[in-house]
Every structure is written in structure tokens, then in C-alpha cells.
Amino acid sequence: MGGSFELYKDKAGQHRFRLKAGNGEIIAVGEAYNSKAAAEKGIASVKNNAPDAPVKDLETGNQ
User: Is 2 within 8 Å of 23 (Cβ atoms)?
Assistant: First the structure.
């Protein structure tokens, strides 16, 4: 099974999403959003903008 996004509310009542791998491990967490719709837009943005995103290594400065 592939990964999946989960929408949830945090303890402060803010909407968030996380991306889980097929084995259930959390591999990414989104920021806090004021609405569920905004969190859903965040998920759509990740899906749209990151499929081939390069890795920028901030520890070494390699782009």
C-alpha cells in the first residue's frame, strides 16, 4: 500500500495534515491552518509542487 495524507486537529484546535508512508511511519507534517479547507489546499500544494522537488542540503550548502 502507498502513502496517505491524514487531516486532523491538533491540541490547539488548528487543522493540520501529515503524510504517512505505506508502513504507517509519519514522513512529513504540515503547518497549522485556521481551517480544514486551508489544510486541504496545503495537501494539494504538496502534491502539485513536490513530485520532482530537488533536495537542498542546508547543512553543507549543496543545492
Answer: no
C-alpha cell of residue 27: 514522513
- pTM of the shown model: 0.80
| pLDDT range class, residue 52, cuts 50, 70, 90 | confident
Phi-psi map region of 13: left, alpha, beta (phi>0 left; psi -120 to 50 alpha): left
* CA torsion angle 46 49 44 39 (round to 10): 50
Burial of 15 (0-12, 13-18, 19+ CB in 10 A): buried
